[in-house]
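ok, trying the design again with the full structure, not the truncated one.
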């Protein structure tokens, strides 16, 4: 899509322009005519000869000049015919009209027809059911929102027009300035993916913020976002974190991999910064738009209130940025200028009577420490605190400093004027220290993410055609038998193809007798596509110590599951149980799930999700930094587990996910891993078709 003429039009026609106050066509016409747009404007409405003293055309076809963009503000039932009549003349449309897929079956049919028209004729259509867009640099407000935000470097793309209005209004007081504000509405033709592609090359945009309620074509979106995020930070506020209901899911993996968890994994893979709420979204785009990212991850905190410093300290937990260790040289310098009662540790406590001179001197000393990448200036407005003068001191220091400077002046009216002084020089003030730490950390992580991420995303997976053919053959046999899941022996063959060791197994068909065994203890299981959760259905009997116990268990299983296959396995020593799984997400494709396994998998939910393809190095990093990280650190005499072995197994599942075919859900639960040199072994493998 070439969207240049859509967002940089030299001429605009407003279909549905109106003089009637309250009409959308009235607001759009006023915005374009009165806010300074320099291009040609054509007003179109059969009811008028003139609007606001300007000629009004009865039909678009009557306009003699070239039209780059048509803004459509007429009833939905007339939209498709109007576009069909004029698409030979115009290729770019903004449809603000509602009455499409958001309204019901008739609207969905209308939108489907419109989409087909766009696809067959190479049309660019923003919307329908959108607010429009605003380009401050062009003084172009092609929307029915009032006013014109100041020009800046933030592009804001939103599914909610109302949120765009609220954010731009709030941005005025917070000095957040925009390159583009685009409401994408129903995303029929131009979605978040097309917008990312366009904004990637937009020289006026340095930061991309998005409010999304859903993502179209998740695989393509992640591919494009991964590339764009290498150059420009992408901050997304994604609504809809919870699901009202959950379908009956056969595998543990399906139960664990909710849509929001998968969204997190997708965003992480693409290097997207996800905001948890509107405040964090606002903080991220506001701060990033005015600041460079930290080059070093060490942070100094100065405060006039000990309690605030403690809260800031707590906020560094599980962050990549850390509180800097203050050097002895710096501590000595600080002691010379601070009262004896002050703390020269980090956070540095200036005490409640600190005035601007104390802040100024401490900042100058910290500036000399080359290991510190950022300074957070905390303040509470105590009776003797000259808030405005301290703000001025921080401002003057910031002008000359090579470090990232942020503030958290905590209070209400007493800090208002001071915060305003900070904003004049683009020093971002956070309402609370926790927010300051979170934003600094997110921006630092973005800046130091893997720079070859896109290359890793498009790794050439070694797709073994013969292996894939064998997998397909095994699945075809099960489908021919009208089974919903593979037998363990079939799953075992598939795992062998991918180099994953499974437990030795003896299979007993429904008409076979129980063999005599001597390798106790043993486990007896039912092997049926009708019994997928064996523990819940008493389809699993553990720790059988002799032939008598095995025979008793065998008879019990035969009675409980007549006609079903049974399997005997050795009772392996259990050290650590891991779950591994693959979920096929309708939007993002296969998702690999791994975490703490066993019967408590869905209770503790200590799981992580990653999207293939990925490198072994990426998996090891995910393992080390995720919820299972404790397994790979020596603590209290516990030996570490083999991270390389587990990463290799996860990589094998990544390859398997590329060959999935008709498999709907898959998990290994448990995979037994050891820290004594024994090889990891899959005990139960579930392949659901």
């Amino acid at each position: 899509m070439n969207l240049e003429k859509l967002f940089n039009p030299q001429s605009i026609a407003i279909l549905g322009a109106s003089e009637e106050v309250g009409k959308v066509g009235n607001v759009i016409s006023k915005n374009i005519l009165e806010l300074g747009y320099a291009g040609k404007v054509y007003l179109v409405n059969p009811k008028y000869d003139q609007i606001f003293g300007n000629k009004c055309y009865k039909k678009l076809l009557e306009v003699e000049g070239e039209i780059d963009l048509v803004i459509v503000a007429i009833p939905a039932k007339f939209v498709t015919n109007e576009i069909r009549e004029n698409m030979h003349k115009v290729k770019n449309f903004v449809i603000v009209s509602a009455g499409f897929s958001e309204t019901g079956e008739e609207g969905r049919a209308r939108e489907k027809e419109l989409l087909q028209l766009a696809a067959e004729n190479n049309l660019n259509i923003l919307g329908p059911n959108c607010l429009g867009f605003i380009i401050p640099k062009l003084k172009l407000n092609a929307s029915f929102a009032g006013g014109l935000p100041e020009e800046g470097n933030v592009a804001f793309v939103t599914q909610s027009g109302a949120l765009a209005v609220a954010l731009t209004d709030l941005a005025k007081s917070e000095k957040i300035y925009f390159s583009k504000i685009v409401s994408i509405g129903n995303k029929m033709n131009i979605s978040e993916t097309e917008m990312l592609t366009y904004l990637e090359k937009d020289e006026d945009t340095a930061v991309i913020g998005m409010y999304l309620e859903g993502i179209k074509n998740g695989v393509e979106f992640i591919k494009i976002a991964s590339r764009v995020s290498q150059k420009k930070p992408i901050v997304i506020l994604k609504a809809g974190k919870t699901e009202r209901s959950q379908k009956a899911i056969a595998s543990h993996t399906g139960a664990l991999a909710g849509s929001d968890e998968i969204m997190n994994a997708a965003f992480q893979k693409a290097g997207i910064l996800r905001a948890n709420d509107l405040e964090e979204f606002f903080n991220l785009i506001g701060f990033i738009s005015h600041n460079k990212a930290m080059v070093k991850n060490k942070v100094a905190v100065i405060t006039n209130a000990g309690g605030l410093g403690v809260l800031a300290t707590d906020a560094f937990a599980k962050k990549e940025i850390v509180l800097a260790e203050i050097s002895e040289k710096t501590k000595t310098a600080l002691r010379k200028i601070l009262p004896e009662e002050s703390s020269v540790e980090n956070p540095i406590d200036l005490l409640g009577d600190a005035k601007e001179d104390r802040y100024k001197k401490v900042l100058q000393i910290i500036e000399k420490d080359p290991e510190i990448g950022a300074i957070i200036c905390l303040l509470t407005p105590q009776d003797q605190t000259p808030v405005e003068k301290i703000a001025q001191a921080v401002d003057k220091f910031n002008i000359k400093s090579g470090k990232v400077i942020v503030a958290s002046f905590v209070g209400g009216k007493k800090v208002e004027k001071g915060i305003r002084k900070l904003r004049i020089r683009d020093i971002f003030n956070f309402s609370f220290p926790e927010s300051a730490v979170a934003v600094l950390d997110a921006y630092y992580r973005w800046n130091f993410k893997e720079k070859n991420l896109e290359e890793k995303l498009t790794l050439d997976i070694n797709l073994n055609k013969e292996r894939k053919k064998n997998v397909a053959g095994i699945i075809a046999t099960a489908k021919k038998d009208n089974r919903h899941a593979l037998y363990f022996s079939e799953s075992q063959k598939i795992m062998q193809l991918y180099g994953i060791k499974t437990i030795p197994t003896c299979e007993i068909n429904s008409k076979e007798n129980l063999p005599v065994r001597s390798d106790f203890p043993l486990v007896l299981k039912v092997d049926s596509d009708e019994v997928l959760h064996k523990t819940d259905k008493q389809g699993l009997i553990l720790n059988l110590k002799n032939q008598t116990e095995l025979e008793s268990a065998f008879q019990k299983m035969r009675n409980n599951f007549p006609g079903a296959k049974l399997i005997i396995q050795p009772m392996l020593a259990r050290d650590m149980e891991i779950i591994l799984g693959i979920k096929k997400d309708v939007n993002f494709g296969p998702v690999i799930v791994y975490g703490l396994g066993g019967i408590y998998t869905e209770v503790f939910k200590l799981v992580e999700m990653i999207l293939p393809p990925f490198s072994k190095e990426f998996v090891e990093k995910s393992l080390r930094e995720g919820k299972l990280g404790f397994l790979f650190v020596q603590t209290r005499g516990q030996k570490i587990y083999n991270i390389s072995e587990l990463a290799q197994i996860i990589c094998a599942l990544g390859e398997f996910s590329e060959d999935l075919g008709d498999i709907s859900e898959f998990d290994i639960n448990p995979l037994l891993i050891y820290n004594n040199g024994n090889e990891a072994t899959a005990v139960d493998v579930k392949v659901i078709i």
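Keeping the full-length input from now on. The longest helix spans residues 105-120.
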